[in-house]
C-alpha cells in the first residue's frame, strides 16, 4: 500500500499540531509506550483509529502496521510507516499517535498507595522508637520529602534503608520537592548539589525523583502526569520555613502580618538580581537577597493539610520554636490557644498555652510526650487548600507525638537539623510525629 505524499503530509501536520497543543498530555504518553504497557496501549490505539474520522487510506495503513506488529518485534515494527505518517522516530511517533487519537493514560495509578490503617500506624509508633522503621514494616516503602533543600536527608534515608529493603526485595520510593529553582543564584547552600543528585540517581533499589522549582502547594501538573503518587507511606518536612509557616493567616490579619514582618525582618521590596526576580530585605543595616517568595505566608494549616492528605504518617523534623508553637496552636482543640492577632513570643506564650507551655519547655532533650496527654486534640481541621476537583479535605490527627531535639539515634536527619548542634543561642528544636485520619466530607 502506498499513501499519497500530499495526504500523508497533511496528516503529519495534524499530528504535529495535536502534539504541540497539549505538552502535559505528551509527557503523560511516556509510560504508554513502555514495553510492559504497549500491548494494552496498542489495542486501545487500534480501537481509537477505527472509530476516528481520518481518511480510510490512513486508517488502513495504520491498522495494517499495528496488526502485523508481532510480540517478538514489539513496538519497533514498521518504523517507515510511522515516519511517513508522523515525521518522527518510532517511539515518539507512537506517542504522537496516542495524543492525536485521544489515547490517554489509563486510570490505574502508577504508584501504589499505602493501605495501612491509622490504628496500625499508631500501634507501630507506640512499639518503635524510630518512626522511619515503618518503611521496613509496610508496603509500599514510599516517602515524599517536602522542601528537600540540599537533599542531605534524602541521601541519609536512602543509605540507611536501601540495603534493608533490598534484602526484602522491595524498592525505596523517594520523591523530593523544593521550591528553589536549581538555576537560581539565590538560596546558597540550600541548593541540591549535582554530585549528591548523581549519587541518589545511581543508587540501586532506589526509585528517586527530584522536582526543583516546585511549589509544594501547586502539584496539579505532577499529579496529572503521575510523576507523584497520590499518597505515600511517610511524608516529611525538615525545618519548615520561616516566616512561611511561622504565622497562621487565618489567625493573624494581613495588617498584623505586614507589621510583624517589617518589625522582625526589616523593610523589603521586590527587585531584580541579574536576570531573576528577588526579595531585597534591609536588616540591621545590611541588604539581603532572597528568592522572591521568601515572605509568602502559608501557615501551619496549609502544611498540615497537605501532609495529612498525602501520607499515612507525617513527620516534621528540626522545627524551630516559632514554627513549633504556631503549629501546636492548631493541633489542640481549645480555640483560646489560637488568639486572633496575637503574635507568639516568649512574653505571650506562657499566657496563651499555660501548663502546656511549662511542661513542653521543660521537656529534656531526647524525651517524648503525647500531645493528647496535655490537651485534647482538635477533632476536625478547617480546609485551606482545594483539591483538583474543588472539594475540601476533611481530616484530623489520631495521634501527635512530640520529641525535643534535632538528632535522634538511628534516625536520618537533614543538614539543617545537624546545624542546630552548633547553634548555642538557638533553643533546641522539635520533632513531631502525626498520624492523620481522613474523614468523610459532609
Automatic annotation (TrEMBL):
<protein>
    <recommendedName>
        <fullName>Methyltransferase</fullName>
    </recommendedName>
</protein>
Amino acid at each position: 500500500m502506498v499513501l499519497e505524499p500530499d495526504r500523508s503530509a497533511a496528516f503529519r501536520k495534524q499530528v504535529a499540531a495535536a502534539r504541540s497543543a497539549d505538552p502535559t498530555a505528551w509527557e503523560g504518553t511516556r509510560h504508554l509506550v513502555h514495553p510492559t504497557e504497549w500491548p494494552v496501549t496498542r489495542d486501545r490505539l487500534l480501537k481509537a483509529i477505527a472509530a476516528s474520522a481520518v481518511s480510510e487510506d490512513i486508517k488502513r495503513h495504520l491498522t495494517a502496521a499495528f496488526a502485523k506488529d508481532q510480540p517478538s518485534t514489539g513496538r519497533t515494527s514498521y518504523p517507515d510507516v510511522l515516519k511517513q505518517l508522523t515525521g518522527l522516530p518510532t517511539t515518539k511517533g507512537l506517542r504522537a499517535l496516542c495524543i492525536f487519537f485521544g489515547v490517554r493514560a489509563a486510570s490505574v495509578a502508577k504508584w501504589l498507595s499505602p493501605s495501612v490503617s491509622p490504628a496500625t500506624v499508631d500501634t507501630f509508633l507506640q512499639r518503635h522508637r524510630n518512626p522511619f522503621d515503618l518503611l521496613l514494616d509496610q508496603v509500599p516503602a514510599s516517602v515524599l520529602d517536602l522542601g528537600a533543600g540540599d537533599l542531605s536527608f534524602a541521601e541519609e534515608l536512602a543509605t540507611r534503608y536501601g540495603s534493608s529493603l533490598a534484602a526484602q526485595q522491595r524498592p525505596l520510593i523517594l520523591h523530593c520537592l523544593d521550591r528553589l529553582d536549581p538555576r537560581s543564584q539565590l538560596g546558597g547552600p540550600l541548593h541540591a548539589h549535582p554530585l549528591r543528585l548523581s549519587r541518589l540517581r545511581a543508587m540501586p533499589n532506589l526509585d528517586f525523583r527530584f522536582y526543583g522549582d516546585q511549589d509544594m502547594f501547586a502539584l496539579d501538573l505532577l499529579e496529572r502526569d503521575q510523576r507523584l503518587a497520590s499518597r505515600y507511606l511517610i511524608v516529611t518536612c525538615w525545618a519548615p520555613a520561616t516566616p512561611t509557616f511561622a504565622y497562621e493567616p487565618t489567625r493573624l490579619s494581613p495588617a498584623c502580618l505586614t507589621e510583624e514582618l517589617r518589625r522582625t525582618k526589616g523593610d523589603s521590596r521586590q527587585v531584580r538580581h541579574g536576570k531573576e526576580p528577588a526579595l531585597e530585605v534591609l536588616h540591621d543595616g545590611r541588604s539581603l537577597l532572597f528568592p522572591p517568595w521568601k515572605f509568602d505566608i502559608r501557615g501551619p494549616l496549609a502544611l498540615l493539610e497537605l501532609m495529612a492528605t498525602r501520607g499515612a504518617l507525617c513527620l516534621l523534623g528540626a522545627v524551630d520554636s516559632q514554627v513549633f508553637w504556631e503549629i501546636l496552636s492548631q493541633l489542640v482543640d481549645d480555640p483560646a490557644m489560637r488568639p486572633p492577632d496575637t503574635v507568639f513570643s516568649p512574653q505571650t506564650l506562657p499566657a496563651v498555652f499555660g501548663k502546656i507551655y511549662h511542661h513542653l519547655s521543660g521537656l529534656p532533650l531526647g524525651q517524648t510526650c503525647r500531645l493528647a496527654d496535655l490537651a485534647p486534640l482538635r477533632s476536625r481541621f478547617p480546609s485551606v487548600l482545594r483539591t483538583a476537583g474543588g472539594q475540601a479535605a476533611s481530616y484530623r490527627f489520631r495521634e501527635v507525638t512530640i520529641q525535643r531535639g534535632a538528632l535522634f539515634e538511628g534516625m536520618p536527619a537533614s543538614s539543617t537539623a545537624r546545624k542546630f548542634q552548633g547553634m548555642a543561642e538557638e533553643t533546641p528544636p522539635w520533632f513531631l510525629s502525626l498520624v492523620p485520619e481522613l474523614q468523610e466530607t459532609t
